[in-house]
Amino acid sequence: MDPTLYKAAMGGNIGDANFLLADHLKRHEENGYQVTPKGNTVLHVAALYGHSHFAAEVLKVTPAMLRCQNKKNETALHIAANEGNTEVVRVLLARIEDHNIKKKLTRMTDASGDTALHKAVRSQHLDVVKLLVKEDSEFEFPPNHAQETPLYLAAESGFHDALIIILESCKKPTNAAGPSNRTPLHAAVIQEHKDCIRSLWRWNKPLCEEPDLWGWNSLHYAVKLGMEDVVSDMLAWKKSLVYLPAGSENDWTTAILIAASEGDVNMIKKLLNHCPDCHDMLNSNSQNALHVSVLNNQDEVVRFLLDSDKCDSLVDEPDSDGNTPLHLLAASGNHVPELINHPRAKKMSFNKENQTPLDIALSCKATTKKIREEHMLSKGKRSNVRQSHGAMGANERHYCFDCIRSLWRWNKPLCEEPDLWCWNSLHYAVKLGMEDVVSDILAWKKSLVYLPAGSENDWTTAIHIAASEGDVNMIKKLLNHCPDCRDILNSNNQNALHVAVFFNQNELICFLLDYDEYDSLVDEPDSDGNTPLHLLAASGNHVPELINHPRAKKMSFNKQNQTPLDIALSRIVTTEKEKLVRDLCSIGRFGKRDLEVKRKCEYMPLTKDDRDKAEKAYQTAVEGIMKVAQIHIVVAHFNNDSHFRRWYHIARRF
Known about the structure:
Helix 22 packs antiparallel against helix 23. This protein is mainly alpha-helical. The protein has a two-stranded antiparallel ribbon with strand order 1-2. A two-stranded antiparallel sheet has the order 3-4. It has a two-stranded antiparallel sheet with strand order 5-6.
């Protein structure tokens, strides 16, 4: 574009002694309109800078310029609407006498599919919105390429005045689905624009039933955001909305479960007030509100639900994996004594992985909350194992020993029988530290100490079990009966020292290293070529007795060509532990455009001091738990031929 002409358009200069706009326009019209690098004509430039008188003069000379588009397919009307230059918009529309041509101009779209009204609403220029709607009130103003209608943009941005003008002045205001198949009501609710919500609600109530791309309707979002008044209005209009699922065919939830995941007690009260039976609703995983509140660590909701007798049935209800809320509590590491001590919380309940809540608690990493939970789960409670296995508290343990002695006298070969996991009674007795039982069994048949415990490809032996427990006295007992059992390897070709190092059993490590006859264990490689020193380096534990042992080969290479020093140097130094994190499948996206609706996951970082205290407390707790809660027997019973078909096993599966 000629610099003189461009500067004139920028400044709104129609003419002076050295410049006359009409002459420039007539001269350049013969050779085509001059444009900027963006494709803007002089009319675009005037519209950009708000010079209505300059635009009027341009249109007197070259009225056809009104329909010219730049490289983004924008007309001067698009530019003026976007900038909020109301007078320029008025001039541009006034220059067209033919109503049909005027409609074509207002309906022209740019490269993004935006009309001038889209531009005005997005930029929140109310006067321009009024002009454009008045000029073409019969037009539906369909969505742009991003599926945004002017009505959707007004609802999403909270531009309430523009929304009212569109609803009241447009004869056919479209409620076409917007981005992610969301309605304008979705957009207003998600952004919490209450004025827009009320106006859209009065205009078209059924909008609240429409699901978006992820299967969430406006009620679901209102529940998630805690908008109690909006939820009340919707449910007062149609109570059945509370039962509609949110999500996909295979992964969905409901309104009350959303409130539970958010920890919103007031919202749950509101939902129950409208629909008392909705507390029984389940999600796609057959989880109730108590499951979900436990899963999201919403303790306040957990206590609220437990305080209501109407919700008692939720306590022992299993989900699709067989997990009760107590199982999920055990997995979370959270401590809610109200649930643990609830009369309907079944400590003996098994999930589909054959795990009790105590099993899960013991298998998770230690935190101070977890320690308290394990104590509560184990104290004076029975835990079940399939096929009539049972665990007894300390006050009942003498009865268990009486049963063992009686069964032993009756049929000694019972102790050789493996269970489903190929553990026999000796293996369990070793695990539980029952030295007298182990002595009796081995005095009868020493060869039992060599029998494997486990599957064909993954097995261990009695001395490895004792090593994993760090039970020095049990190791002594086994070696006293069978001195050569120290050389036994497990399925990974690991000896007792490997296992003791792997489980950080420092006392046992020092015990084994104190005896010359165990020296051969020190430099023995496992199936991966790792010596006990390699495993020590990987663990981050510090046992100078092993590091400085004369047979500990510092230059020994495993099958990854790593020395213990290589492994130690490759470890990432950390000073905190984090809680276990569960992955909720995103149910949908949420927010202006990209905020996800998901189950909450919390991290609980521990300081170094907290970590040390937790680890110490954890070891103490587990020892106590194992002594109190984990002695099991199989109760014998008769079949039709009056013979015993099931024999006793000490303890349960670990």
